[in-house]
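Human:
If only I could read backbone structure tokens as easily as an amino acid sequence. I am handing you a single protein, as its sequence and its fold in token form. I hope you can help me see how the letters and the tokens relate. Thank you; the sequence and its tokens follow:
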Amino acid sequence: MATAALTASPAMVPVVPTTALALTNVLYEKRDIIAYVTVNRPKVLNALNGPTWQDLQTAFEDAQNDPTVRGVILTGAGGKAFIAGDAERSSRFGQSVLELIENLGGPVVAAITTPLRWAAAARRQWSSYFGLCAGTEDKKEGTAAFLEKRAAQFHGR
């Protein structure tokens, strides 16, 4: 009795929609062509410290080295602050991470989820690193639509 090797057709191979790294202070997830980087220290308004800078470096290096990633969205968890701290006065290591972000090779969108009274200050501080900083309740959809070259489907206000 002969046996035949079975191979799955491309339609049958499961597609893994999400890839994530396990980091301490940063949530990192890749979905389709977009990498999502979220500073996850809401109790301290996403303040940047040594371990957080290290996690940011790891996440952005992974995005830079993955040819399927065509853009990155950076945001802060908790809805009260994008990222706390002064980027201009960060450590030398922090400055090297900011240089990595500036020279990533693809678009990096700073999705600022800060109450309006603080949003202008956050945009001023971070715009030198991100060219354009914008805030919206539908930030992920707007950015995804931009990167995918399609019309956005906004459901918020």
User: Anything to note?
Assistant: The longest strand covers residues 26-31. Helices lie at 50-65, 92-102, 116-130, 139-148.
